[in-house]
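Reopening: structure tokens for the NDP complex, inputs below.
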Amino acid sequence: MSTPRYAVFGHPVAHSLSPRIHAAFARQTGIALEYTAIDTAPHDFVAALDRFAGEGGKGANVTLPLKEAAFAISATVTERARRAGAVNTLSRNDGRWQGDNTDGAGLVRDLTGRQGLDLRARRALLLGAGGAARGVAPALLDAGISELVIVNRSPERADALADALGEPDRAHSRYWADLGDLGDFTLIVNATSASRDGKGEFSLPFGLTTPRTLAVDLNYGEAAIPFLAWARAAHCHDAVDGLGMLVEQAAEAFEAWHGVRPDTDAVYAELRDRDKVLVTAD
Ligand code: NDP
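Re-run output (same inputs, fresh job):
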């Protein structure tokens, strides 16, 4: 019997850590699998997934900019993927793709479990409204934040996300240009890909923060440096990157595919040790 195939699809995807993480989980649990990275431009995504399924592909992770497209092609979706309107994990069942979203669970597990932080009653600012923001927004609401303000470069995407969340009293959108007038937040999440080219500073008003603000960047490695530098300059109480979320969302996907929950601590520690050389995020 051939080895079951899994892959991460994205564009670009060459530096994705998912193959390394899933290989480590597979070694740890004694499960045989092959996991590769497949670079797919958005216009070729459906055809590439079809080819992958035809070659025996059993599951796929999906990263930027394909998460909303993955939602659209899923024959069925889990409740958390439906609320997100974005899919980062696909499972092949009875010749059809089932879509799930493990990003939000991964983020909350990292923040509350590994980092020991309490998210309840925090007033939260979410920067970005792409696939990752869609994944984490419902999970943050479920974790007990008091309010979610969504700000995105393209305001219509922030409006669409706020509408999809369907909690107008707790979750709403504002304009990026109005960031200076939004008051302060005890949780600020950077879910943009603005720093992925490694250029420039992350310039936000310091008035967004308080001495107990938790600043979280979904990016990690070099891409997280500008936002975390801003958070430290603003004297945020905590500044956390997205490496732990990356490992936890992968563990959620691994469990969905293989029915076994891997231990994430050893994999996280190994990647954290190598963080100096990381250049991209999933
Ligand atoms: P998408 O391409 O779906 O969305 C990108 C988001 O970034 C959009 O909101 C976009 O705004 C915004 N953006 C891009 N460039 C700029 C800029 N110059 N200034 C302001 N906003 C900008 O990507 P994803 O949502 O999938 O991913 C977002 C980031 O999160 C990525 O860097 C990714 O690596 C990281 N991530 C980390 C994960 C982890 O496990 N740690 C998991 C998932 C993602 P607009 O709508 O206007 O284009």
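The pocket of NDP is lined by residues 64-65, 67, 103, 106, 128-133, 152-154, 157, 191-194, 196, 218-220, 223, 242, 245-246, 249, 281-282 (CB under 6 Å). The mean pLDDT is 94. Marking as resolved unless the reporter disagrees.
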